[in-house]
Amino acid sequence: MEFEIRIGKWVEELVGFMLDHFQSTFDAISTVVNGFGGAIDFVLVGAPAWLLIGLIVATSLWRVGAGFAVFTTAALLLISGMGLWTETASTLGLVLTSTLLCLLIGVPLGIWMARNRVVESIVRTTLDFMQTMPAFVYLIPAVMFFGLGRVPGILATVIFAMPPAVRLTALGIQQVPGEIVEAGKAFGCHDRQLLFKVQLPNALPSIMAGVNQTMMMALSMIVIASMIGAGGLGNVVLQGIQRLDIALGFESGLSVVLLAIILDRITQSFGRTAVAPRPARFAFLRRFLPVPAR
């Protein structure tokens, strides 16, 4: 007698049931995500290349320093010179959309996780499961429920990249020193004031580390999501693989790496507890400015 557990068949029936009874819900989610992602993509792709490059370079100068601003300028001009600027802007839009959705869900969930032991045990187990799943597996439910295109790519990326935002938000709140929390209570803070005026400001470095990790994971997943039509640089990478085009594959891969370095350094700068004083970061401008008479 053969004994067989047909888990796959049960999942298939469950998916069919959900598609039959909740299709309107999936359509609504698809409309919202497509509108949100489409608006960001329209702004970034539609903006002149020089304007977007200037904004990114200015942010690099403000947050990191003159040396990195020079690197950012060279990197973005190289990407533009290779003819991949539109795909890079589209990839940036997909990453920003996915990261914002991750934070909208992940930060409140991390706060709830830090303040409730039962929720913490459930969410921690779920996150462990999510982080052990191969990245390609996330594409399957996205395609089943939302078809092909930008929306399933974004949603698969959100599921894949959300765990760091949840974990590091919870960790940051839990690691706020007890003396600071007690001082807040002693000054009459109720729960909401304690959260927004004491715990979250002190947990900000950890939360920003979560933002950084979430954005890096989103970028890696967006490239994989090109297999289901997400677009951007991932689509060019996929074309290079399919055609065995070494030049195209190298140029698109290099563009992904350069974009990742820029996003990583900029988001890291927001998580520092001690940011360099602004005059120090712009000290190189003094040599070009007239010295006021005393």
Automatic annotation (TrEMBL):
BP GO terms, sorted: choline transport; glycine betaine transport
GO molecular function: amine transmembrane transporter activity; carnitine transmembrane transporter activity
Annotated Gene3D superfamilies: MetI-like
Residue ranges constituting the ABC transmembrane type-1 domain according to the UniProt record: 88-267
Topology with respect to the bilayer: Multi-pass membrane protein
Subcellular locations according to the entry: Cell membrane
Pfam families found in the cross-reference section: BPD_transp_1
Source organism superkingdom: Bacteria
UniProt keyword Transmembrane helix present: yes
Keyword Cell membrane in record: yes
Gene Ontology cellular-component terms listed: ATP-binding cassette (ABC) transporter complex
Keywords: Cell membrane, Membrane, Plasmid, Transmembrane, Transmembrane helix, Transport
Transmembrane intervals: 36-57, 64-85, 91-114, 135-162, 215-237
PANTHER family assigned to the protein according to its UniProt record, in alphabetical order: GLYCINE BETAINE/PROLINE BETAINE TRANSPORT SYSTEM PERMEASE PROTEIN PROW, GLYCINE BETAINE_PROLINE BETAINE TRANSPORT SYSTEM PERMEASE PROTEIN PROW
Family indicated by similarity: Belongs to the binding-protein-dependent transport system permease family.
Protein name: Glycine betaine transporter subunit membrane component of ABC superfamily
